[in-house]
Specification:
The chain is an alpha+beta fold and 290 residues long. It has three domains: 113 residues, Rossmann fold; 95 residues, D-amino Acid Aminotransferase, Chain A, domain 1 (2-Layer Sandwich), CATH 3.30.470.20; 55 residues, 2-Layer Sandwich (Dna Ligase, domain 1), CATH 3.30.1490. It is built from ten helices and 13 strands. The strands form three sheets. Strands 11-10-9-12-13 form a five-stranded antiparallel sheet. Strands 2-1-3-4 form a four-stranded parallel sheet, sandwiched between helices. The longest helix has 16 residues. The chain is globular. About 6% of the residues have low confidence.
């Protein structure tokens, strides 16, 4: 797997492969130290696939000439910044195959819109409230506490808090105008993730992001049998949001699994063959374009 310095060096010169036909991987800097897309890139390079790595924050899209990204046979995105979504949208306007589509990334970038879509599609999900924290404190029934409070535009468990009551919520400094709140589902300190590459799914039990860092250390992801219920949830979420590479975060409840959220292009923790399966998927898409 390429290490972070190697990927960073590639990002230092995003125009080096400007006119080279191949696969473009557009990745935010903050993902350079994570499992993906480094694993995918290594698997593609082992197959002699030409890969260019680009930081979306360094891109200028010159519409007086053909943008560099239009030379790629396909583009894979890792991230959800507006600069990244713009790069994907530009590629799509020039007929380039993108994985995931920009519309799919946008559909799960906003957790409030995602929650509304899940409810409208009758996909089982916890009770959800969205609004300014002070108004949430006045609206959420006392019996619903403790609740999990999330930034609407957060990811990688950033900013998640467990709130025990309305007074705590009223006094909480919050970085966004709105927040999303859901009741804390009692459990054993683990969550179930269903990872997807196209129509291939895996179920993995992982430590909950709500655990203190020390409690989660040493807990390795545990592969689980993929039940029909979990597979059906993954199918429904993939179709609802138009995603190819995605993860579905689930919680076990007495009534069965419920979907907490859906994420584009996750790290596939606990799936050792994920990089090879990702490379298979991308190579098949490149072959369909050339």
């Amino acid at each position: 797997m390429p290490d972070a310095p190697a990927l960073a060096a590639a990002l230092d010169s995003p125009r080096a492969d400007a006119h080279r036909v191949g696969l473009a991987v557009v990745v935010e800097q903050r993902y350079l130290h994570q499992r993906q897309p480094a694993g995918l890139i290594a698997a593609l390079e082992a197959r002699n696939v030409s890969v260019s790595v680009t930081d979306p924050d360094l891109l200028v899209h010159d519409f007086t000439s053909r943008p560099w990204i239009a030379a790629a046979s396909a583009v894979v995105a890792r991230g959800r910044s507006l600069a990244l979504v713009t790069a994907m949208a530009v590629a799509e306007r020039f007929g380039v195959r993108t994985i995931n589509r920009s519309s799919a990334v946008l559909a799960v970038r906003d957790k409030a819109a995602m929650a509304a879509a899940l409810v409208a599609a009758d996909i089982p999900t916890p009770d959800t409230w969205v609004g300014p924290p002070a108004e949430l404190a006045r609206s959420i029934r006392s019996s619903a506490y403790p609740v999990v409070l999330k930034p609407v535009f957060g990811d990688n468990a950033r900013g998640i808090r467990v709130i025990t009551g309305a007074q705590e919520l009223l006094s909480l400094p919050w970085p966004e105008d709105t927040a999303l709140a859901q009741p804390l589902v009692p459990g054993d300190g683990t969550d179930v993730k269903v990872y997807a590459v196209g129509s291939r799914y895996w179920a993995v039990r992982v430590p909950s992001p709500l655990l203190p860092a020390g409690d989660a250390s040493g807990r390795a992801p545990e592969p689980l049998p993929l039940t029909g219920e979990l597979g059906a949830l993954a199918d429904a979420c993939g179709q609802l949001f138009g995603l190819e590479l995605f993860g579905v975060d689930c919680l076990d409840t007495p009534d069965g699994p419920v979907v907490v959220e859906v994420n584009d292009f996750p790290n596939y923790r606990g799936v050792p063959e994920a990089s090879e399966v990702l490379a298979d998927h991308v190579v098949n898409e490149i072959g369909a374009r050339v």
